[in-house]
Design goal:
The protein is an alpha+beta fold and 180 residues long. The chain has helices at residues 25-38, 53-65, 113-127, 142-150; strands at residues 6-10, 13-19, 69-76, 79-88, 97-104, 132-138, 154-164, 170-179. Helices cover 28% and strands 37% of the residues.
Length: 180
């Protein structure tokens, strides 16, 4: 779905949240490669980011045209800092729910960007008539868990060995939800 861009002040910085556009495809692919290389908390390995610019353009278009999904990019002082999204389900029995995802480049963490992105998603979800947001977070990602709890998400369960890393180690995941 589309929405109007929003501008926020974070101290001396300007944060803009807006829909991704097809012109962002190349930059978004590089951002995804960089963020997956920076952290073990995201689902994919850097080498799994294989989309072409054309494929990314199609994905961006599908998100912008969807009735059940919203994807926003976060630009801090003009630099791509992060992205966030919610994706609902079209089935009647699940239309009240959506899954949330968020990621930030490491150098932009701790500035309040994640809070602004999540608050914006929560309000957009409410405006869409959603009743519940859900997410999965790696159990040792304390900063993310702290953010989600601060915003009213609660832990609903744990999935042991949710991720298996290249080195053979595993990470558990927490399932969290927020009633809207």
């Amino acid at each position: 779905m589309r929405r109007e861009p929003e501008t926020f002040r974070l101290g001396a910085h300007t944060l803009v949240l807006r829909n991704a556009e097809e012109a962002d495809a190349g930059q978004l692919i590089e951002y995804l490669k960089n963020t997956t290389a920076e952290t073990r908390f995201l689902v994919r390995e850097p080498e799994e980011i294989t989309a072409t610019a054309e494929e990314e353009c199609r994905f961006i278009s599908s998100m912008n045209e969807s009735e059940h999904a919203l994807m926003l990019l976060a630009f801090l002082d003009g630099e791509l800092a992060g992205n966030c999204s919610f994706t609902g389900m079209p089935q009647k029995r699940y239309r009240h729910r959506a899954t949330v995802g968020i990621a930030l480049c490491r150098k932009f963490t701790g500035l309040g960007i994640g809070t602004v992105m999540m608050e914006t998603l929560i309000q957009a979800a409410r405006n869409q008539g959603l009743e519940q947001l859900e997410l999965e977070v790696i159990a040792d990602n304390a900063p993310a868990i702290g953010l989600y709890k601060k915003l009213g998400f609660e832990v609903c369960g744990t999935l042991p060995n949710n991720m298996k890393y290249k080195d053979g180690t595993y990470a558990d995941a927490l399932w969290m939800r927020k009633k809207l």
